[in-house]
Every structure is written in C-alpha cells, then in structure tokens.
UniProtKB/TrEMBL annotation:
Annotated Pfam families: Hydant_A_C (PF19278), Hydant_A_N (PF05378), Hydantoinase_A (PF01968)
Domain Hydantoinase/oxoprolinase N-terminal: 9-186
Membrane spanning stretches: none
Protein name in UniProt: Hydantoinase/oxoprolinase family protein
UniProt domain Hydantoinase A/oxoprolinase: residue ranges: 207-493
UniProt domain Acetophenone carboxylase-like C-terminal: residue ranges: 508-673
Length: 683
C-alpha cells in the first residue's frame, strides 16, 4: 500500500460475525474497507486478517482505534474469570440478594427464579471495618482479615481475579485502597479490581455488580489486548493502540487494561460517535441510528448532535454504573435464526454467528437466518457477496426456508421469507418506540441513519413502517462503526456522590470536589500524551427532585446559580417525562468529563455528477414490500452513482459489503457527500 508516511489512520470493529477494518488517508480522503470473519477462538487473528486486507505493514499508520465486544461476549456467554469478592463483614450475600425485585417482564410469572449470581457464595467473603455515609471511619479495616480473605480465595480456591467493594467507599475510598494494596503486595500475579477505581457513586449493590463484572472480564481483556498489541507491533505499528469506550471517546490500551469494563460496549459506541459527527457536520437536528450487524440490531437517538447517555445500564440482568450511550439492542441481525415456536414465527435472539453462519455459507449451518431469507427474496446477489470473496449457495438457503419455515406455516417460500422481515420489523419498532414515543418524541420528525452490513437493506422497510420520511445510508456503511472510531477524541469520566440540596451555598462549596475530579482528569490526559491546549474538562451535575430515586445530568457553566440549574433540570425533566414539579432540587453526583481532542478526518464534498444516472449493471426479481409482489429490480453499482443522481424505486444499490434496497414507492438521491438519501414510502 503506497501512502504518505504518517497520514493513514486505521480503525477496527469486531462484530459477532465479521471483523471490519477501515483505513483513512488524510491526504486523499480515501476510505478503504476490508472484512474478515470473526475468529471466536482467537479474536486477535480475525483483527490481523481484516487489517492484512488493507496493508501488509503498519509502519505508516498514524492512529489505530479498536472497538471490541469481547468483554460483553464473556459476560453473555459466562466465559469470564472465576472471581472472588471481598466486602464488609455481614454483606457477603449482597450480590445475591440484590434489590429483591422481580424484572418487569416476569412480573406475573410465578415460576420465575432469578439467575444464579456470577460469583458463588464460597467465593465471597466479608472482613471487619466500616465507613459511614459521610465518609467517616467508624471501625478500622482489619488488615489481617484482608490477608486471610486473600489467602482463602487465592491459595485455597485458586482464584486469579478479586473484586473489592466496601460500603460507602464512594464517600471515602480509604479502606478499598488499603485492601487493594495488601492484596497486590501478597499476590502480585492476581488481578485486583476496586469499585472506586471504576465509579464513586452510591448504591452498594449496583457498585458491587459493576466491580464484579470488571474483575470478571479483566483477565480476558488483558490477555487479548496484550496479544493484539504484540501482533500489531510485529506488523510495524509504532503509535499507541487506542480502545473505544462504551460512552464514546477512546482511551489508551494501558488505561483499558486498568478499567476494562469501560470497553464492554465499545463496538456499538463507534457507530453512535460517527452518527453524531455526521449530524453535527450536516446540521441534522434529529437522527435515529440503525445499526444492524450479524447478531444484533442497535438504535440510539441523537438530538442536536448529542446522543442520549445514561450512567446506569445493565447487561444480561447485571447492573452497571458506568457512562454509556442510551442504546436499545434487539437480538436480531443478519445471522439471526428464524424459527417456529408452537406454530408462531420468531426471529432471534439465537444467532448462527460466524460459525457455522447462515445456511447459504455452506459451513454447517442448518437453520435459516435473516441473510438466507434476504437471498430468497432476491435482495442479495449470491455471486457478489463480500465483493465476490465469499461463496454463497442461494439454493441451500431456499431449501432451508422451505423446510423449516414455509412447510410448517403452510405457506409458499416467498410468503414465509417476507414474514420473517415482518416479524423482525415488529420487534424493531418496539425498541424504537422505547426511545422515542415513550419519551414524547415523534419518530416521524427524525432521519434514520442506516449502517452495519444489513442496515441499508432493512432501513427502507423500517422507514415505511414508522412513517419516517428520510433514510440516510452513509459511505462505507458496513464499517461505519469503525469510521466512527476515527472520529473519537480521548475521553474519560470521573464522578463522586455528594447528596446535597441544590442551593447557591452548595454550589459554592463544590469547588474543592470538582478540583479533585479535574485533577484526576488532567493526570489521565497527561499520561496519554495530550497537550494542555488540547484538553477540555466539562463539569456536570446529576440532579433530581427531592425524594426521587433517579436523576438527570445537567451541564454546569461558570456563574451558574441554583435557580438556573433547577430551571434547566425542570425543562429537561418535562421534555423527558412530560411534566415538571414544584419541588426543591437535590444534587446527587458530581461528574467531570476529561476530553483530549484528536485531529480527525472531516467530510469531503464530491463534485456534481457529470451526466445522467448510469445504466444499471443488471436486473433481478425481488420482493417489493410496497406492492407485495415479486417484480424486476434494476441493480446499480454504488461506485457509479455521483452527487445529484436520482433513482426511483424499485431498485437495488450494491457496494460489495452492503446492499441498499429501494422499494416501489421510494426515491433515492445521492447527496453532495456521496450518501444515499431515500425518501417517500411513508403514509
């Protein structure tokens, strides 16, 4: 690959089915994409396979950003480390007792039983010592008991990862830090996670769950990052490897090792960052992201260029106290299996994954997937799959749909295949309503930004279903999450719980606490080599009405009064929940976001297309959801469509790694950035 030294950027995103690698040439603005199969048994090999399709050596690479769901998969598949928990005496069962509530979806299920805790009781132990809610030590930590707990968990039970979480450590982390120092001195080869290194917020159960998950995935992530760094260095990479954070932004691999839980949803976060960048660059006030990969479908609302964010989330029933984008995930993607359950058609959450994959891959899969169904309906070209690099058997896909779906349902193959998309769309509409209609937002006022390998295929259907007027397919949609990683700054967030009334006196007294958090932010950015002029520190308050449980984040600006903060909080509360209350405010948590600005590629405008729309490269029969019939779809190569070109549906636009389907009542326009803009079709 011939490129100007120091002007190339790489980003890599690991999905459930494929690894996406993208390179960006700062000089020419050229974006290049290569996909390789995910290798679950050796994830680093899949990354190197994808990168190798773009460059033999990485000596010219200026920046390398990586997003991975390895930690997430370790949690979902229960393949993390065996963890030991050290907490206060009498609280060893906190993780199992949890909040003693029943999930809403099981409210009337009298046979419901909570899942077993991630850490068995024999691996949980308590030690004497206590700090109260004001941070005052009322009983010294028993250091000998900590040593005995370490001996029991490490020497007797053979554990190699420990989580330390004490009551009220958010107010005073002294005991956690002392326990961690004792354990690390006694067992330097053992991984030790402390709750206050991840989050200094109240709610002891949620904080215990968070640090336990961190300890659970830490050995897995550390081994993976070390292996990947070694192989990238052997390939010539001299610049630091950066890892995407779940809440946006990137951090060095060294920091990722210290806080691996911050990377747990780094793959989907890349797409949200990229969508936010496009929204700001193109002045799109309201955008819904629609990211469809091989195993899942992710959606997020972006308003005025800012994505929704939460500071408490959950993974497979385990709560997390970390900043994270407010993403709704549906367990359905290109590899999701369509199946019959007591006469009803269902799609997902089971996935064929990368191995064995859809039936059409001829790699051992026997259950029809969304990809197989798309082949049956004519949307995908068997000879052009992944630019022709992958052999696809459309006949095998049709046979599987016929045997597994059409015959049990008593319908023809086309009807069965179309029904799969109807079921998938119904599930997707439900997820989108959670983050729009249920928050007093009208989805018809938003543009739908479609990406991921299957996003451009499904999005025009979804837009018709929800009455969304505009669907946008960006450049290189199959690797858009990786593209978003190129748009990332270095970011890290620090927080501490204060629980004080929202008054002018309180605001004046927060300076010392904010200064401490900002000092931590400056230290982290300095360690990552960020120059002082490229650093930004953003102060934020989590505010709630007195007596509420949950809060909303409010940016704090110089000169703010309590009345101004409460007014902004009430306005946001009314926008989110439909009402405000005449109650006094309360400050729950202080937050500081430390941002290290990085140079990043911008959007490049294309010259207007010269001449009329080029002739189609072919034609094939496909199912038109607008008419409910199989009709002839002209097929266009995306590379031949220029800025200003317009195409009326039905039509198919192919680009090797992704396919966009425009139905009979829709129109396609190529905008000045080369993006596909689809309109029409709404009621």
């Amino acid at each position: 690959m011939s490129q100007e030294p120091g002007r190339t950027r790489f980003a890599v995103d690991i999905g459930g089915t494929f690894v996406d690698a993208i390179s960006y040439d700062d000089t020419t603005g050229e974006l290049r994409l290569h996909k390789a199969s995910t290798t679950p048994d050796a994830p680093a090999r899949g990354v190197l396979d994808a990168v190798g399709g773009l460059a033999g050596r990485l000596d010219d690479v200026e920046a390398f950003v990586h997003g991975t769901t390895l930690g997430l998969n370790a949690i979902l598949q229960r393949r993390g480390a065996d963890v030991g928990i050290i907490t206060n005496e009498g609280f060893r069962d906190l993780l199992e007792i949890a909040r003693a509530n029943v999930p809403a979806q099981h409210m009337y299920d009298f046979s419901y039983a909570p899942p077993p805790p991630l850490v068995p009781r024999r691996h949980r132990t308590g030690v004497p010592g206590r700090i109260d809610a004001q941070g005052t030590v009322i009983e010294p930590l028993d250091e000998d008991a900590v040593r005995e707990a370490g001996r029991l968990l490490v020497e007797e039970h053979g554990l190699r990862s420990l989580a330390v979480c004490f009551l009220h450590s958010y107010a005073n982390p002294e005991h956690e830090r002392l326990a961690a120092r004792i354990l690390r001195e006694a067992y330097p080869e053992v991984s030790v996670s402390t709750s206050t290194d991840i989050t200094r917020e109240y709610r002891e159960y949620e904080r215990t769950s968070t640090v336990t998950l961190d300890a659970y995935i830490r050995p897995v992530l550390n081994d993976y990052i070390a292996s990947l760094e070694s192989r990238l260095n052997d390939a010539g990479l001299t610049h630091p490897l950066h890892i995407m954070r779940s809440g946006g932004g990137a951090m060095t691999s060294e920091l990722a090792r210290q806080a691996p839980l911050m990377t747990v949803l780094s793959g989907p976060a890349g797409g949200v960052v990229g969508a936010s960048f496009l929204a700001r660059e193109q002045n799109l006030a309201k955008v819904i992201t629609f990211d469809v990969g091989g195993t899942s479908l992710d959606c997020c609302v972006i308003e005025d260029g800012e994505p929704g964010e939460v500071h408490e989330a959950g993974i497979d029933g385990f709560p997390l106290l970390i900043p994270i984008f407010d993403i709704r995930t549906v367990g359905a993607g290109g590899g999701s299996i369509a199946w019959i359950d007591e006469g009803l058609l269902k799609v997902g959450p089971h996935s064929a994954g990368a191995v064995p994959g859809p039936v059409a891959y001829r790699a051992g899969g026997t259950e029809p997937t969304v990809t197989d169904v798309a082949l049956v309906l004519g949307y995908l070209d068997p000879s052009g799959f992944l630019d022709g690099d992958m052999t696809i058997d459309a006949d095998a896909a049709r046979d599987a749909v016929a045997a597994k779906l059409a015959e049990p349902l008593g319908v023809d193959v086309t009807r069965a295949a179309a029904s799969v998309f109807q079921v998938l769309l119904a599930r997707t509409v439900g997820a989108l309503r959670e983050i729009t209609v249920e928050r007093a937002l009208d989805p018809r006022e938003f543009a739908l930004l479609a990406f991921g390998g299957a996003g451009p295929l499904l999005a025009p259907m979804l837009a018709r279903e929800m009455g969304i007027a505009t669907t946008i397919v960006p450049q290189v949609p199959a690797a858009f999450s990786a593209f978003g990683m190129l748009m990332s700054d270095l970011e890290y967030e620090f927080a501490t719980t204060v629980l004080r009334p929202l008054t002018d006196e309180t605001l004046a007294g927060l300076e010392e606490a904010f200064a401490e958090l900002e000092g931590q932010g400056e230290e982290v950015l300095s360690a990552q080599g960020v120059k002082p002029e490229d650093r930004t520190l953003i102060r934020r308050l989590d505010v709630r009405y007195h007596g509420q449980e949950h809060s909303l984040g409010i940016d704090l600006v110089p000169g703010d009064t309590a009345a101004a903060v409460l007014a902004r909080f009430s306005a946001q509360h009314e926008a989110r929940y439909g009402h405000a209350m005449p109650e006094p405010g309360q400050i729950l948590t202080l937050r500081v976001r430390a941002v290290g600005r990085l140079s990043k590629p911008g959007l490049r405008e294309l010259p207007p297309a010269a001449g009329a729309v080029p002739e189609p490269i072919g034609e094939r029969p496909a199912f038109d959801v607008a008419s409910g019939e199989t009709v002839a779809f002209p097929v266009y190569a995306r590379a031949t469509l220029g800025a200003g070109h317009e195409v009326s549906g039905p039509a198919i636009v192919e680009e090797g790694t992704s396919t966009t389907v425009i139905f009979g009542d829709q129109q396609l326009t190529v905008d000045r950035y080369g993006q596909l803009v689809i309109t029409g079709g709404q009621a």
